[in-house]
Design goal:
Helices cover about 70% and strands about 5% of the residues. With about 160 residues, the chain is mainly alpha-helical. The protein has a two-stranded antiparallel ribbon.
Length: about 160
Amino acid sequence: MTDGEQRYDAEEDTPLGGYAALATTFAAAVGLFAVTARRRGLRLPDTVPAWDVAMLGAATFKMSRLLTKDKVTSFLRAPFTRREREGEASEVMDAPRGTGLRRAVGDLVSCPFCTSTWVAGGLVGTYAVAPRAARLVAAGLSAVVVSDWLQYAWSATEQKAEG
């Protein structure tokens, strides 16, 4: 086996140990939730209505974008990322920095797809424990998604009128 075949990637900068630590943390949180729920006798719902799934999905989308791309949450990402450029609609594009766990966290907090798993876990856990509160939070975040789409539609209408 050559040296290149022993490496995970060509640059050897993929923080596999950091990813493993994050995956372990997520799995431990899910396990702790399950054990705590069982010990407290929490009855999980037999089904989740499609409307709740849609609302939780929209809320997960928005919260993930807020955490990973919004200017005002930059302070949360700053220890793990560096600003690369400004994006559209006041979003920013950050890149992970550092090595090991710091780099892995940077990858997580700069990727809305990666962060959405964690956000969904939190929202679903809240839904299991306090469905009314989870629906309220999800409805608020979903309202922001609708507002965003209306903002984009308004901007597109303005651009056509000016063009």
